[in-house]
Protein backbone atom coordinates (compact mmCIF):
# COMPACT_ATOMS: atom_id res chain seq x y z
CA UNK A 1 0.00 0.00 0.00
CA UNK A 2 1.31 3.46 -0.92
CA UNK A 3 1.67 5.77 2.07
CA UNK A 4 -0.23 9.06 2.32
CA UNK A 5 3.02 11.05 2.07
CA UNK A 6 3.97 9.17 -1.10
CA UNK A 7 0.57 9.89 -2.67
CA UNK A 8 0.93 13.54 -1.70
CA UNK A 9 4.36 13.67 -3.33
CA UNK A 10 3.10 12.04 -6.52
CA UNK A 11 0.26 14.58 -6.72
CA UNK A 12 2.73 17.42 -6.17
CA UNK A 13 5.01 16.13 -8.94
CA UNK A 14 2.11 15.72 -11.39
CA UNK A 15 0.93 19.26 -10.69
CA UNK A 16 4.47 20.62 -11.01
CA UNK A 17 4.91 18.90 -14.38
CA UNK A 18 1.60 20.38 -15.53
CA UNK A 19 2.59 23.87 -14.38
CA UNK A 20 5.97 23.68 -16.10
CA UNK A 21 4.35 22.62 -19.36
CA UNK A 22 1.77 25.42 -19.23
CA UNK A 23 4.46 27.99 -18.42
CA UNK A 24 6.68 26.86 -21.31
CA UNK A 25 3.71 26.81 -23.69
CA UNK A 26 2.67 30.34 -22.71
CA UNK A 27 6.26 31.61 -22.83
CA UNK A 28 6.87 30.33 -26.36
CA UNK A 29 3.41 31.49 -27.47
CA UNK A 30 4.35 34.96 -26.23
CA UNK A 31 6.81 35.29 -29.14
CA UNK A 32 4.01 35.01 -31.72
CA UNK A 33 2.07 37.94 -33.16
CA UNK A 34 -1.43 36.77 -32.29
CA UNK A 35 -3.16 39.98 -33.42
CA UNK A 36 -2.60 42.61 -36.09
CA UNK A 37 -3.55 45.15 -33.44
CA UNK A 38 -0.26 46.59 -32.14
CA UNK A 39 -1.66 47.31 -28.65
CA UNK A 40 -2.93 43.75 -28.14
CA UNK A 41 0.37 42.34 -29.42
CA UNK A 42 2.36 44.48 -26.99
CA UNK A 43 0.16 43.46 -24.06
CA UNK A 44 0.72 39.78 -24.87
CA UNK A 45 4.46 40.17 -25.45
CA UNK A 46 5.22 42.42 -22.49
CA UNK A 47 2.59 41.86 -19.80
CA UNK A 48 2.00 38.19 -20.65
CA UNK A 49 5.67 37.22 -20.72
CA UNK A 50 6.40 39.13 -17.52
CA UNK A 51 3.56 37.22 -15.88
CA UNK A 52 4.97 33.90 -17.07
CA UNK A 53 8.42 34.87 -15.81
CA UNK A 54 6.98 35.64 -12.37
CA UNK A 55 5.06 32.36 -12.39
CA UNK A 56 8.27 30.45 -13.13
CA UNK A 57 9.73 31.84 -9.90
CA UNK A 58 6.57 30.80 -8.01
CA UNK A 59 6.85 27.23 -9.30
CA UNK A 60 10.51 27.18 -8.31
CA UNK A 61 9.61 28.42 -4.82
CA UNK A 62 6.89 25.80 -4.47
CA UNK A 63 9.47 23.05 -5.13
CA UNK A 64 11.78 24.54 -2.50
CA UNK A 65 8.96 24.87 0.02
CA UNK A 66 7.95 21.26 -0.57
CA UNK A 67 11.37 20.14 0.58
CA UNK A 68 14.06 20.62 -2.05
CA UNK A 69 17.15 22.57 -1.00
CA UNK A 70 17.58 25.67 -3.16
CA UNK A 71 21.39 25.79 -3.05
CA UNK A 72 23.35 24.29 -5.91
CA UNK A 73 26.96 24.45 -7.03
CA UNK A 74 27.75 25.91 -10.44
CA UNK A 75 29.90 23.78 -12.70
CA UNK A 76 33.32 24.94 -13.79
CA UNK A 77 31.90 26.29 -17.04
CA UNK A 78 32.25 29.86 -18.28
CA UNK A 79 29.23 29.62 -20.60
CA UNK A 80 26.69 31.45 -18.36
CA UNK A 81 29.25 34.02 -17.23
CA UNK A 82 30.20 34.85 -20.81
CA UNK A 83 26.53 35.10 -21.75
CA UNK A 84 25.97 37.55 -18.91
CA UNK A 85 29.06 39.40 -20.17
CA UNK A 86 27.46 39.60 -23.62
CA UNK A 87 24.31 41.09 -22.09
CA UNK A 88 26.40 43.50 -19.99
CA UNK A 89 28.12 44.75 -23.15
CA UNK A 90 24.72 45.08 -24.81
CA UNK A 91 23.46 47.13 -21.86
CA UNK A 92 26.49 49.44 -21.98
CA UNK A 93 25.94 49.87 -25.73
CA UNK A 94 22.79 51.90 -25.01
CA UNK A 95 25.28 54.77 -24.57
CA UNK A 96 26.25 54.68 -28.27
CA UNK A 97 23.25 52.95 -29.81
CA UNK A 98 21.81 54.61 -32.89
CA UNK A 99 18.35 53.94 -31.40
CA UNK A 100 18.60 53.50 -27.59
CA UNK A 101 14.86 52.82 -27.20
CA UNK A 102 14.88 49.89 -29.62
CA UNK A 103 18.11 48.52 -28.15
CA UNK A 104 16.65 48.70 -24.64
CA UNK A 105 13.42 46.95 -25.67
CA UNK A 106 15.32 44.09 -27.29
CA UNK A 107 17.74 43.84 -24.36
CA UNK A 108 15.03 43.67 -21.70
CA UNK A 109 13.10 41.00 -23.64
CA UNK A 110 16.27 38.92 -23.88
CA UNK A 111 16.99 39.46 -20.17
CA UNK A 112 13.41 38.53 -19.30
CA UNK A 113 13.65 35.19 -21.11
CA UNK A 114 17.00 34.58 -19.37
CA UNK A 115 15.37 34.94 -15.94
CA UNK A 116 12.54 32.63 -16.99
CA UNK A 117 15.05 30.05 -18.28
CA UNK A 118 17.00 30.18 -15.02
CA UNK A 119 14.03 29.36 -12.78
CA UNK A 120 12.56 26.88 -15.27
CA UNK A 121 15.73 24.80 -15.59
CA UNK A 122 16.57 25.21 -11.89
CA UNK A 123 13.14 23.75 -11.07
CA UNK A 124 13.87 20.66 -13.19
CA UNK A 125 17.31 20.38 -11.58
CA UNK A 126 15.77 20.37 -8.08
CA UNK A 127 13.30 17.69 -9.13
CA UNK A 128 16.19 15.58 -10.42
CA UNK A 129 18.12 16.03 -7.18
CA UNK A 130 15.44 15.57 -4.54
CA UNK A 131 12.63 13.63 -6.23
CA UNK A 132 14.33 10.74 -8.04
CA UNK A 133 12.02 8.83 -10.34
CA UNK A 134 9.88 11.84 -11.29
CA UNK A 135 8.49 11.94 -14.84
CA UNK A 136 9.42 15.51 -15.82
CA UNK A 137 11.59 15.51 -18.94
CA UNK A 138 12.76 18.67 -20.68
CA UNK A 139 12.58 17.06 -24.13
CA UNK A 140 8.95 16.06 -23.56
CA UNK A 141 8.02 19.56 -22.35
CA UNK A 142 9.67 21.13 -25.41
CA UNK A 143 8.34 18.54 -27.84
CA UNK A 144 4.76 18.80 -26.62
CA UNK A 145 4.92 22.61 -26.55
CA UNK A 146 6.07 22.66 -30.18
CA UNK A 147 3.37 20.15 -31.14
CA UNK A 148 0.52 22.15 -29.57
CA UNK A 149 1.58 25.42 -31.20
CA UNK A 150 2.26 23.80 -34.57
CA UNK A 151 -1.11 21.99 -34.40
CA UNK A 152 -2.81 25.40 -34.08
CA UNK A 153 -1.19 26.43 -37.37
CA UNK A 154 -2.04 23.16 -39.12
CA UNK A 155 -5.69 23.50 -38.11
CA UNK A 156 -5.63 27.20 -38.93
CA UNK A 157 -4.29 26.63 -42.44
CA UNK A 158 -7.58 24.88 -43.27
CA UNK A 159 -9.91 27.00 -41.13
CA UNK A 160 -8.45 30.44 -41.93
CA UNK A 161 -5.85 30.23 -44.73
CA UNK A 162 -5.72 34.03 -45.16
CA UNK A 163 -4.45 34.30 -41.57
CA UNK A 164 -2.11 31.33 -41.38
CA UNK A 165 -0.45 31.54 -44.79
CA UNK A 166 2.11 34.10 -45.92
CA UNK A 167 2.43 34.90 -49.62
CA UNK A 168 6.02 35.26 -50.85
CA UNK A 169 7.82 35.73 -54.19
CA UNK A 170 5.26 38.20 -55.47
CA UNK A 171 2.32 36.05 -54.42
CA UNK A 172 3.57 32.95 -56.24
CA UNK A 173 4.29 30.91 -53.12
CA UNK A 174 2.25 30.45 -49.93
CA UNK A 175 4.08 29.46 -46.76
CA UNK A 176 2.67 28.44 -43.41
CA UNK A 177 3.12 31.18 -40.84
CA UNK A 178 1.04 34.14 -41.94
CA UNK A 179 1.58 37.39 -40.06
CA UNK A 180 1.70 35.36 -36.84
CA UNK A 181 5.23 33.99 -37.32
CA UNK A 182 8.05 34.07 -39.85
CA UNK A 183 7.82 30.74 -41.79
CA UNK A 184 11.51 29.99 -41.22
CA UNK A 185 11.12 30.54 -37.48
CA UNK A 186 8.01 28.34 -37.46
CA UNK A 187 9.97 25.67 -39.33
CA UNK A 188 12.68 25.88 -36.68
CA UNK A 189 10.05 25.31 -33.95
CA UNK A 190 8.82 22.24 -35.85
CA UNK A 191 12.44 21.04 -36.01
CA UNK A 192 12.83 21.47 -32.25
CA UNK A 193 9.64 19.49 -31.70
CA UNK A 194 10.83 16.68 -33.99
CA UNK A 195 14.25 16.58 -32.32
CA UNK A 196 12.66 16.21 -28.89
CA UNK A 197 9.87 13.78 -29.78
CA UNK A 198 12.32 11.45 -31.52
CA UNK A 199 13.50 10.57 -28.00
CA UNK A 200 9.98 9.37 -27.21
CA UNK A 201 10.00 7.41 -30.47
CA UNK A 202 13.29 5.65 -29.74
CA UNK A 203 12.15 4.82 -26.19
CA UNK A 204 8.72 3.70 -27.54
CA UNK A 205 6.91 6.09 -25.17
CA UNK A 206 3.23 6.16 -26.26
CA UNK A 207 4.42 5.07 -29.68
CA UNK A 208 1.21 5.58 -31.71
CA UNK A 209 0.53 9.05 -30.27
CA UNK A 210 4.18 10.05 -30.74
CA UNK A 211 4.02 9.02 -34.41
CA UNK A 212 0.90 11.17 -34.89
CA UNK A 213 2.64 14.18 -33.35
CA UNK A 214 5.72 13.65 -35.50
CA UNK A 215 3.62 13.43 -38.68
CA UNK A 216 1.92 16.73 -37.83
CA UNK A 217 5.28 18.39 -37.23
CA UNK A 218 6.79 17.02 -40.45
CA UNK A 219 3.76 18.18 -42.43
CA UNK A 220 3.95 21.67 -40.91
CA UNK A 221 7.69 21.81 -41.64
CA UNK A 222 6.99 20.98 -45.28
CA UNK A 223 4.29 23.67 -45.49
CA UNK A 224 6.59 26.35 -44.10
CA UNK A 225 8.92 25.82 -47.05
CA UNK A 226 11.89 26.42 -44.78
CA UNK A 227 15.07 25.11 -46.40
CA UNK A 228 17.26 25.61 -43.33
CA UNK A 229 14.80 23.83 -41.04
CA UNK A 230 14.56 20.88 -43.43
CA UNK A 231 18.36 20.55 -43.46
CA UNK A 232 18.37 20.74 -39.66
CA UNK A 233 15.77 17.98 -39.33
CA UNK A 234 17.69 15.70 -41.70
CA UNK A 235 20.82 16.20 -39.57
CA UNK A 236 18.83 15.47 -36.42
CA UNK A 237 17.46 12.25 -37.90
CA UNK A 238 20.91 11.04 -38.91
CA UNK A 239 22.16 11.96 -35.44
CA UNK A 240 19.49 9.77 -33.84
CA UNK A 241 20.24 6.95 -36.27
CA UNK A 242 23.93 7.09 -35.41
CA UNK A 243 23.29 6.72 -31.68
CA UNK A 244 20.55 4.08 -31.85
CA UNK A 245 21.35 0.54 -30.73
CA UNK A 246 18.25 -0.85 -32.43
CA UNK A 247 19.16 -2.15 -35.92
CA UNK A 248 15.50 -2.51 -36.99
CA UNK A 249 14.80 1.10 -35.99
CA UNK A 250 17.88 2.26 -37.90
CA UNK A 251 16.72 0.48 -41.06
CA UNK A 252 13.19 1.90 -40.67
CA UNK A 253 14.38 5.47 -40.21
CA UNK A 254 16.96 5.31 -43.02
CA UNK A 255 14.36 3.82 -45.38
CA UNK A 256 11.90 6.61 -44.51
CA UNK A 257 14.54 9.28 -45.08
CA UNK A 258 15.58 7.77 -48.43
CA UNK A 259 11.96 7.72 -49.61
CA UNK A 260 10.96 11.20 -48.43
CA UNK A 261 14.19 13.20 -48.77
CA UNK A 262 14.26 13.46 -52.60
CA UNK A 263 10.69 14.76 -52.68
CA UNK A 264 11.27 17.17 -49.80
CA UNK A 265 14.54 18.50 -51.27
CA UNK A 266 12.98 18.91 -54.74
CA UNK A 267 9.87 20.67 -53.38
CA UNK A 268 11.33 22.72 -50.52
CA UNK A 269 14.95 23.44 -51.41
CA UNK A 270 14.86 23.38 -55.23
CA UNK A 271 11.23 24.63 -55.44
CA UNK A 272 10.19 22.19 -58.20
CA UNK A 273 13.43 22.72 -60.11
CA UNK A 274 12.62 26.31 -61.10
CA UNK A 275 15.85 27.77 -62.53
CA UNK A 276 15.21 31.17 -60.92
CA UNK A 277 14.84 29.44 -57.56
CA UNK A 278 18.18 27.74 -58.12
CA UNK A 279 19.72 31.19 -58.32
CA UNK A 280 18.01 31.98 -55.00
CA UNK A 281 19.60 28.92 -53.42
CA UNK A 282 23.05 29.83 -54.70
CA UNK A 283 22.77 33.37 -53.27
CA UNK A 284 20.87 32.16 -50.19
CA UNK A 285 17.85 34.25 -51.32
CA UNK A 286 19.96 37.36 -51.64
CA UNK A 287 21.65 37.06 -48.27
CA UNK A 288 25.21 36.64 -49.58
CA UNK A 289 25.27 40.01 -51.40
CA UNK A 290 23.68 41.62 -48.33
CA UNK A 291 26.31 40.16 -45.98
CA UNK A 292 29.06 41.26 -48.36
CA UNK A 293 27.71 44.80 -48.31
CA UNK A 294 27.47 44.76 -44.51
CA UNK A 295 31.13 43.81 -44.20
CA UNK A 296 32.44 46.08 -46.92
CA UNK A 297 30.22 49.15 -46.42
CA UNK A 298 28.68 48.97 -42.92
CA UNK A 299 31.28 47.40 -40.65
CA UNK A 300 34.12 49.88 -41.36
CA UNK A 301 31.95 52.66 -39.88
CA UNK A 302 31.83 51.06 -36.38
CA UNK A 303 34.24 48.08 -36.35
CA UNK A 304 35.04 47.66 -32.64
CA UNK A 305 31.78 48.20 -30.73
CA UNK A 306 29.15 48.31 -33.46
CA UNK A 307 26.00 50.40 -33.75
CA UNK A 308 24.43 49.33 -30.46
CA UNK A 309 22.44 46.32 -29.27
CA UNK A 310 20.37 44.96 -32.20
CA UNK A 311 21.29 47.88 -34.47
CA UNK A 312 23.04 47.40 -37.83
CA UNK A 313 23.33 50.96 -39.11
CA UNK A 314 22.88 54.61 -38.18
CA UNK A 315 19.46 54.50 -39.85
CA UNK A 316 16.59 52.07 -39.22
CA UNK A 317 17.56 50.04 -42.28
CA UNK A 318 20.90 49.20 -43.84
CA UNK A 319 21.00 49.30 -47.61
CA UNK A 320 24.09 48.60 -49.62
CA UNK A 321 24.79 50.02 -53.05
CA UNK A 322 23.51 46.87 -54.77
CA UNK A 323 21.34 45.21 -52.08
CA UNK A 324 17.85 45.36 -50.64
CA UNK A 325 17.21 47.36 -47.41
CA UNK A 326 17.29 45.28 -44.24
CA UNK A 327 16.66 45.89 -40.54
CA UNK A 328 18.37 42.69 -39.43
CA UNK A 329 21.15 40.62 -40.97
CA UNK A 330 19.55 37.16 -41.29
CA UNK A 331 22.63 35.72 -39.61
CA UNK A 332 23.07 35.80 -35.86
CA UNK A 333 26.88 36.10 -35.99
CA UNK A 334 26.74 38.92 -38.52
CA UNK A 335 24.10 40.52 -36.29
CA UNK A 336 26.46 40.51 -33.30
CA UNK A 337 29.28 41.84 -35.45
CA UNK A 338 27.17 44.82 -36.52
CA UNK A 339 25.58 45.29 -33.05
CA UNK A 340 28.65 45.08 -30.86
CA UNK A 341 31.57 44.98 -33.29
CA UNK A 342 34.55 42.65 -33.18
CA UNK A 343 34.60 42.85 -29.37
CA UNK A 344 31.04 41.52 -29.13
CA UNK A 345 31.62 38.84 -31.77
CA UNK A 346 34.73 37.57 -29.97
CA UNK A 347 32.81 37.40 -26.69
CA UNK A 348 29.92 35.42 -28.21
CA UNK A 349 32.20 33.01 -30.07
CA UNK A 350 33.97 32.12 -26.83
CA UNK A 351 30.57 31.83 -25.13
CA UNK A 352 29.44 29.32 -27.76
CA UNK A 353 32.71 27.43 -27.47
CA UNK A 354 32.21 26.91 -23.73
CA UNK A 355 28.55 26.02 -24.29
CA UNK A 356 29.41 23.27 -26.77
CA UNK A 357 32.19 22.09 -24.46
CA UNK A 358 29.72 21.90 -21.56
CA UNK A 359 27.25 19.92 -23.66
CA UNK A 360 29.90 17.37 -24.66
CA UNK A 361 30.82 16.78 -21.01
CA UNK A 362 27.26 15.85 -19.98
CA UNK A 363 26.02 12.28 -19.55
CA UNK A 364 25.23 10.31 -22.69
CA UNK A 365 21.45 10.78 -22.62
CA UNK A 366 21.52 14.41 -21.59
CA UNK A 367 24.23 15.17 -24.15
CA UNK A 368 22.09 13.62 -26.89
CA UNK A 369 19.07 15.70 -25.86
CA UNK A 370 21.04 18.96 -25.78
CA UNK A 371 22.67 18.29 -29.16
CA UNK A 372 19.23 17.57 -30.59
CA UNK A 373 18.10 21.02 -29.40
CA UNK A 374 21.31 22.73 -30.47
CA UNK A 375 21.29 21.54 -34.09
CA UNK A 376 18.09 23.30 -35.30
CA UNK A 377 18.71 26.57 -33.44
CA UNK A 378 22.30 26.77 -34.74
CA UNK A 379 21.27 26.11 -38.34
CA UNK A 380 18.49 28.68 -37.99
CA UNK A 381 21.10 31.12 -36.68
CA UNK A 382 22.92 31.10 -40.02
CA UNK A 383 19.92 32.40 -41.97
CA UNK A 384 17.51 34.04 -39.51
CA UNK A 385 17.34 35.87 -36.15
CA UNK A 386 19.26 33.17 -34.31
CA UNK A 387 20.57 32.86 -30.79
CA UNK A 388 22.15 36.33 -30.64
CA UNK A 389 19.59 38.17 -32.77
CA UNK A 390 16.39 40.08 -32.14
CA UNK A 391 14.08 38.53 -29.54
CA UNK A 392 12.80 35.10 -30.62
CA UNK A 393 12.21 31.70 -29.04
CA UNK A 394 15.49 30.41 -30.45
CA UNK A 395 17.17 32.63 -27.86
CA UNK A 396 14.93 31.14 -25.16
CA UNK A 397 15.88 27.58 -26.12
CA UNK A 398 19.56 28.50 -26.18
CA UNK A 399 19.33 30.09 -22.72
CA UNK A 400 17.64 26.95 -21.39
CA UNK A 401 20.46 24.91 -22.89
CA UNK A 402 23.04 27.12 -21.15
CA UNK A 403 21.45 26.59 -17.73
CA UNK A 404 21.06 22.86 -18.44
CA UNK A 405 24.86 22.58 -18.33
CA UNK A 406 25.29 25.05 -15.46
CA UNK A 407 24.03 23.45 -12.25
CA UNK A 408 25.89 20.73 -10.41
CA UNK A 409 24.79 18.58 -7.45
CA UNK A 410 25.97 19.80 -4.05
CA UNK A 411 27.39 16.37 -3.35
CA UNK A 412 26.69 12.71 -3.82
CA UNK A 413 23.90 12.53 -1.27
CA UNK A 414 22.67 9.24 0.08
CA UNK A 415 18.92 8.65 0.28
CA UNK A 416 18.98 9.22 4.07
CA UNK A 417 20.92 12.50 3.68
CA UNK A 418 18.53 13.70 1.00
CA UNK A 419 15.48 12.93 3.13
CA UNK A 420 17.09 14.72 6.08
CA UNK A 421 17.72 17.86 3.98
CA UNK A 422 14.17 17.80 2.65
CA UNK A 423 12.73 17.41 6.15
CA UNK A 424 14.80 20.32 7.47
CA UNK A 425 13.77 22.46 4.51
CA UNK A 426 10.09 21.74 5.11
CA UNK A 427 10.41 22.66 8.76
CA UNK A 428 12.04 26.01 7.84
CA UNK A 429 9.34 26.69 5.27
Measured as a percent range, the helix fraction is 55-70%
Given as residue ranges, the uncertain stretches (5+ residues, pLDDT < 50) are none
Report the major sheet. 2 strands, antiparallel
Question: What characteristic shape results from the CA principal axes?
Answer: globular
Q: What is Rg?
A: 22 Å
Given the helix and strand composition, which structural class is it? mainly alpha
Please outline the helices and strands.
Layout: H1 4-29, H2 38-66, E1 73-74, H3 79-92, H4 100-130, H5 138-159, H6 161-164, E2 165-168, E3 173-176, H7 183-202, H8 207-224, H9 227-243, H10 247-269, H11 275-282, H12 287-298, H13 332-360, H14 364-381, H15 393-404, E4 407-408, H16 415-428
Antiparallel strand pairs: 1-4, 2-3
Helix pairs in contact: 1-2, 1-5, 2-4, 3-13, 4-15, 5-7, 5-8, 7-8, 7-9, 7-14, 9-10, 9-14, 13-14, 14-15
